[in-house]
Amino acid sequence: MSEVVIKQQMQEMGLQGMLKSFETDLTLAVKQDWGYEELISKLLQAERDHRNEESIRKKIKLANFKKGAYLEDFDFTTKRTITKIQVQDLMSLKWLESARPILLIGETGVGKSFLAEAIGRYACSKKRSVLFREATELFLMIADARRLNKYLTTRKRLAQFDILIIDDFGMRKINSTEAQDLKELLEIRSLSKSTIFTSQLPLNHWKEVIDDPIILEAIVDLLEHSSLKFEIKGESYRKTKAKKLDSKNLDH
């Protein structure tokens, strides 16, 4: 069988990883006197690597991240109360195995959203499914689903992600329907999935944005004892970054 026919069959069968590495591996096989077992092994590994990369790329695209944040870019030179050891512990994803929620609490600019997205992106690289939504965006999405009689379908979909990141929770008050939707979603997810909240409000201040005391109590109960809480205080990440840029400009 000719190389052209082999490559055509790879194309037809969707073996893109094999196809990309075929000519290179075939050349190496001839030069280094590989046996057919080693050549096949190399081609299979190339296909496996390609599929893994594609899977991760699709998960990251589906997650709908906002910032292009990576854990390795988290600035530990900025003075904040969260430590490198704590961030490394988050990177272990052990909390995900036990379906623990995470609360990242702090003022604007301390890096809550950056850290949440970076964790989510890292989880994608470990083949976990993630969805990132700003709180207002999430509630509008659920409201639209309810209007279109697709609430249960949407809730089921939201419940299936390994990690759901709800960013900037508490920027506005939520009504009883929204609070009930959140409670139901957390109840389902608490069985085997993790939810990450970023907020300026500590949990004991959520009464400021959730008026219904009964639903509030249920939500707090779902998060109070099982969640990992990080109250991040310190310098603004944005201000520190701006100072560094100003310093570089002055140096030049």
Describe the protein's architecture and organization.
This protein has 252 residues and is of the alpha/beta class. Strands 2-3-4-1-5 form a 5-stranded parallel beta sheet. Strand 3, helix 9 and strand 4 form a beta-alpha-beta unit. Helix 3 packs antiparallel against helix 6 and helix 8 packs across helix 9. The longest helix has 28 residues.
What class do helices, strands and sheet pairing give?
alpha/beta
The CATH H-level homologous superfamily of the largest domain? P-loop containing nucleotide triphosphate hydrolases
**Strand proportion:** 5-15%
Low-confidence stretches: none
* Strand line-up of the largest beta sheet: 2-3-4-1-5
What letter string, H or E per element, gives the SSE order?
HHHHHEHEHHEHEHEH
Biggest sheet statistics: 5 strands, parallel
CATH topology-level fold name of the largest domain: Rossmann fold
> Outline, from the CA principal axes?
elongated
First-residue to last-residue Cα separation: 62 Å
Please provide the count of β strands. 5
Please, how many helices?
Answer: 11
CATH class of the largest domain: Alpha Beta
What's the helical proportion of residues? 55-70%
CATH architecture of the largest domain: 3-Layer(aba) Sandwich
